[in-house]
Amino acid sequence: MPSPAGDAYAQACEEGGITPRPFLVGALRSIRVQAENNENEGEGDQGVVVNLNGSNKPLFKARLTDADVVAFFKGLQAGFAPGEIVFDEINLSRNRIGAEGAQAVADFLSTEGVRVAALNISHNDIDAEGILGIVEALSTSAAGLVSIDMSANDIGAKGSMEVVAALETNQCLWHLDIGHTGFESSAVIALCDMLRHRRNTSLRSLGLSTPYVSKRSIPCATVIEHIGLMLKHNRGIQALNLTSFRMDDRAAEILCAYLCTTNSVERVVMPKNNIGFKGASAFAAVLVDRNCSLRHLDLARNNIADDGAVSLAQGLARNATVEELDLADNNIEDEGLLQLQTAATNHGSLRKLRLFASNHFGTRACEYAHEHPLAGDTEGGEGGVAVDFTSFVVDGEVQIARVDI
Question: Which of helix, strand or coil describes residue 93?
Answer without folding.
Answer: coil
